[in-house]
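seq as requested:
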Amino acid sequence: MWFNRKNILLSITIIGVLIWSAIGTDFSLDKLRNFAEHYQEIIDLWFPPNFERVDRAFNAILLTLQVAFFGSFVALLIVLPISFFAAKNTSPNATIYHLVRNSLSVLRSVPDIVIGIILVMAIGLGPFPAVMAILLHNIGVLGKLISELIEAADKGPQEAVASLGLGRMMIAMYGILPQIIPNILSHYFYRFEVAIRSSIILGFIGGGGIGQLLMNAQRVYAYGDVMLYVLFIMALVILVDMMSSYVRSRVI
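struct tokens:
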């Protein structure tokens, strides 16, 4: 059953692409062994963390959290009504559907780091370009995810609301939203976690927060500072993951 011509050709193709990718990426087990040989040297450089920078790291991690939360939550507020125009079953006509859908695709196709670089050049350094980069990219991503939830919503409740003679808005409010809110929250918390990582990377290009401190410390070889900032980043990611799991368990 498994060893037919189709599966053999597929396996050969996958192995070929894997080898091609390994060559293209310069994958080497020797380099991994080289890393293992310098492991103790790296540990000696990075430990102990420089705890004298705790206050600075704490303020920066709060700024990173603010950037991620504001950018992702405002994007959710903006995209909730827009998603109904990007769904086939709720859009007023085909022109609006394609216009909104393609606009979301354009926003989604540009990585937030690229948007951030453009905005830093246009607006200047600071957290505001980072917020706008996360906001714009999340509008594209959340818009696609929520519009697909709307299209997949059960038609039964929608027909029940429509039978009462209510219009499109009421059908959306009472026939669709109650079904998809748990999944919307699930998508939002996932995007919030991604936004935290994005805000750290945006700090590398001058977006502020813990990412900018990390980059500055790396440039002057202050590895004790780098280790402290990494510990703060790990703590933030774990804390947000625990909070989102708690909220999901209570709501979904």
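The chain has a mean pLDDT of 85.
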